[in-house]
Amino acid sequence: MQNCFFGSLAILLLAILIPNLKRDKTNFENSSEMGKNSKTGEDKYSILLPTYNEVENLPIIVWLIVKYMEKSGYNYEVIIIDDGSPDGTQDAAKQLQQIYGENKILLKPREKKLGLGTAYIHGIKHASGNFIVIMDADLSHHPKFIPQFIEKQKFEDYDLVSGTRYMGSGGVYGWDFKRKLISRGANFLTQLLLRPGASDLTGSFRLYKKDVLEKLIKSCVSKGYVFQMEMVVRARQFNYTVGEVPITFVDRVYGESKLGGSEIFQFAKALLYLFATT
Questions:
Q1: Residue range 152-172, pLDDT digits in tens
Q2: DSSP letter at 255?
Q3: What is the pTM of this model?
Q4: β-sheet bridge partners, residue 246
Q5: What span, in angstroms and rounded, lies between the C-alpha atoms of 16 and 169?
Q6: Segment 71-101, tens digit of pLDDT
Q7: Do 220 and 227 contact (CB within 8 A), yes or no?
Q8: Which residues of 98-130 are buried (b: 16+ CB within 10 A; e: fewer)?
Q9: d(Cα 237, Cα 235) in Å, to the nearest integer?
């Protein structure tokens, strides 16, 4: 009950703070007009947000996405794939639809947690864009980088663009030494054993061509956090081109991290499997 209250309060505050929200509502409700005014009307970006117990974070991340995508002028939609969150995440999503319009914010829930890969498949089925952006809904990934992903993709017509914490100005904030050590160690092992041609395999902030993402998902056998690593490895197998954009990763502010001992074990197991089969 408390989570629902804070989630609803956050949404109301956002509605008050957004200047002239009601006057500009038609901009969110008329996606066809937005497509005509975008930089590239033929391209549309479907942003997938898998959620589970993100009632506090969802209003903020959606507000940030809208802010930076509207500023950039690219045509987009946000698809929320909620796995039966008991904290009121879906109620928050419905209120966001009232603010921004149901054609801009799509809620496509599932009954329970069924895995990240199937969440993407579920979202793709409802995506009208020819490009797919995947990101976390817990504020770890800042939407300000999405326009940079798009520009990077257009520059070399990359099949996928991945955010990297380990190149250029990229970095991590809010992690303790143990979490940083695990992440660095995992990334080092993947680089050593798999030679994927990308600096950050375990991240989950990426831009894909829609058909490329569909093919990669079908080819992957891993689940959980390892799924993201296998996606890049399979991309190398299929000779897809990969671009990278330095990002700053910030540990979640609200809620609890879903990384635990079982995920680390699954990572090690999958790493050996990929080393033997790729």
A1: 999 999 999 999 998 898 888
A2: S
A3: 0.81
A4: 164
A5: 34
A6: 999 999 999 999 999 999 999 999 999 999 9
A7: yes
A8: ebbbeebbbbbeeeeeeebbbbbbbbbeebebe
A9: 5
